[in-house]
Each structure stands twice: as structure tokens, then as C-alpha cells.
Amino acid sequence: DSIPISLEHARFPAEFFPGLLERPLGNSLYELLSKHYETTPDEAVEQIDLVNATLDEARILEVPLGAPLLAVTRTTMDTKGRKIEYSHDLFRGDRTRITVRTKGRPATPDQPGERGRTVELKEF
Fold this sequence. Notes:
Layout: E1 6-11, H1 29-37, E2 41-52, H2 55-61, E3 68-78, E4 83-92, E5 96-103, E6 116-123
Antiparallel strand pairs: 1-4, 2-3, 3-4, 5-6
């Protein structure tokens, strides 16, 4: 429907991905990293915050100044444990839903337990 949903900024270490910006970046970036750099994302740590849209963000995302946005800051590691991506993404609060799925027992100080959590960000 041509309504902007997100504003994404990602940084990738040049030492791991020489020539990345010369490659076509219109499709899946993770597929490109796998195919051309033999790098597979393995784990990501994400922090999610609620922020207010700045003037530039409001203009780009077509929302009012100060509109609520979900800010997701992510560090992604590959299968070798290297930090391969640093990103900061902003999602329109009126067009985004977060779903969290937790598997296993939550850990407690006296009983470690296994824990797995999946967070799914859906745009609608």
C-alpha cells in the first residue's frame, strides 16, 4: 500500500565484507552474506525501546512529529562468534506488532533450567 513502515540503519564491518557496497543490495542481505562471504548469522541480541519520532524520522515514515516508534537495536553474531551486524531500526508504532514466544522453564537462581525465546516483529 506504499505506506512506509520502517527506517533501518545497519552497519557491517568492512574487514569481514570487503566490497559489500558494490554488490546489489535489493534482496536478502543475509543471503548475500552467505553466498559471497560464507557468513551465516547465528544469534542476535536485540533491545527494543519505545521512542518518539524526530522531525526527520516523522517526515520519512509519514507520521506526526513525536509519534510513537519501536526502536530495535541489534547486534548479530555469525557461527564463528564474530559480531557481523550492528543495526538500529525504527518501526511505526501504528503498523507494528511484537509477538514473544518463550520455550522451557524460566531459569531461577537455584535452578538454571533451559530457556529459549523467540521474538517476532510483524508489520501490518
